Inverse folding.
């Protein structure tokens, strides 16, 4: 099982320096499993708020020295989430906005104020309903674009 709790790594490849970060949905899913995590937004929202707040503080404290030292030498952030499937997101925009967006903004603000503007979301599936919120949170692109999930790069770019 893939669990991303921290930075997955800082890799230098083809001269881009990439900071890989496990996102909030990936964190909760990794700890609780998808089947327990998704209903907990409704059955135990206090727990999920606590988890998301803790993880934001953890990421900021863990990444602060790295980001402030390397600053714009980090070319881009690979933000791992995998929060969708072929027919849409695993959580609603309302749930994303309440539980994930505020903490995502806090972490991405750390990157932005240190000159790191390119944050790319890694998620399979159809994330179109979440895209306005992802952009609001500081995500600047997504990969992959799963064609079988109706993710049409040309059509999305026009939006």
């Amino acid at each position: 099982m893939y669990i991303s709790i921290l930075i997955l790594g800082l890799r230098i490849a083809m001269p881009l320096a990439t900071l890989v970060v496990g996102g909030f949905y990936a964190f909760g899913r990794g700890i609780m499993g998808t089947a327990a995590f998704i209903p907990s937004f409704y059955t135990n929202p206090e727990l999920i708020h606590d988890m998301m707040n803790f993880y934001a503080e953890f990421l900021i404290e863990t990444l602060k020295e790295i980001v402030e030292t390397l600053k714009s030498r980090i070319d881009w952030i690979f933000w791992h989430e995998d929060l969708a499937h072929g027919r849409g997101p695993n959580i609603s925009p309302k749930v994303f906005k309440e539980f994930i967006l505020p903490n995502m903004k806090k972490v991405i603000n750390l990157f932005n104020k240190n000159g790191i503007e390119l944050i790319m979301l890694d998620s399979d599936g159809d994330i179109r309903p979440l895209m306005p919120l992802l952009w609001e949170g500081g995500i600047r692109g997504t990969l992959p674009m799963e064609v079988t999930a109706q993710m049409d790069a040309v059509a999305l770019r026009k939006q």
In short: DSSP finds six helices and seven strands in the chain. The first strand starts at residue 7 and ends at 13. The chain has one domain: 7-144.
